[in-house]
Design brief:
The chain has nine helices and five strands. By secondary structure, it is of the alpha/beta class. It has two domains: 2-84, Methyltransferase, Methionine Synthase (B12-binding Domains), Chain A, domain 1 (Orthogonal Bundle); 92-212, Rossmann fold, CATH 3.40.50. A five-stranded parallel beta sheet has the order 2-1-3-4-5, sandwiched between helices. Strand 3, helix 7 and strand 4 form a beta-alpha-beta unit. The longest helix is centred in the middle third of the chain and has 25 residues, at 60-84. The protein starts with a helix and ends with a helix. Bound molecules: cobalamin. Cobalamin binds at residues 43, 46-47, 49-50, 54, 60, 63-64, 67, 101-108, 110-111, 147-149, 151-153, 178-183, 198-201, 204.
Amino acid sequence: MREFLAECKNAVLDGDRERAVGLAVRAIDDGIEVLDVIEQGFAVGIREAGDRWEKGEYFLPELAFSAESMKAAMETLRPALIESGGKGRSKGTVVIGTVQGDIHDIGKMLVATMLAANGYEIVDLGADVAHDRFVSEVKNQQPDLLCMSALLTTTMMGQKTIIDMLSEAGIRNSVKVLIGGAPATETWASDIGADGYADNAVAAVHKADEILS
Ligand code: B12
């Protein structure tokens, strides 16, 4: 198993999309725990690619190839991941997106997939979502939960802007707000008036269950 996870990590590090997808297919065929393959295999690869980029060992195109390989593997694993949660009554609707100015969407995709796997209906707005779009989608979709992802210290400010805009529109109390992304913290969440924070996709599901119960 350790060897297989290392292969997943290396396929992402090498930016080898085909190999990554092949390994994802093998994981499904062999009945390996899909979340482990993502968290302990592919995600380790993308984070290490980021470290190499920071140290100047990788250039941006190499990091982008790694990200594409990771995303392709996740797309392959997604149906199996959702199925692993089983079917049941919907626990509520979630609107999720990455805030304006930020194109990082791998973590958001993982959070959305885990919430879907655990009985939530997902409206995924994608990445680089305009602040006012979050507000209009809350008005239109009337979700139980709004999830905002931000991976940049600059774009995390958008999480605050959007919460303030919800208040100004008089709809802040109609929806719970969960935030996340590498620079976010519990303290940041409470400072900006969010209802919760989680630092990974499994914790995001627990937090969603908790704040909606
Ligand atoms: C992959 C990557 C990219 C890819 C993104 C591809 C894609 N489609 O997503 C590419 C190459 C395009 C990229 C571009 C850039 N990147 Co980049 N990138 C990364 C990297 C290496 C990994 C991110 C990732 O996918 N992690 C794997 C996933 C699974 O983890 P995650 O995102 O953290 O998500 C988990 C949790 O945070 C949480 N979570 C996430 N969202 C949410 C939401 C909610 C509601 C909840 C509850 C939880 C939650 O759960 C997730 C699952 O467990 C990070 C470094 C790092 N270690 O994080 C840098 C990083 C985020 N990037 C960085 C930078 C600077 C950039 C660029 C500005 C570089 C440039 N000069 O152009 C651009 C930004 C462009 C833009 N406008 O957005 C910096 C940010 C620094 C900062 N503090 O602001 C980082 C930290 C690298 C670094 N150490 O310097 N990047």
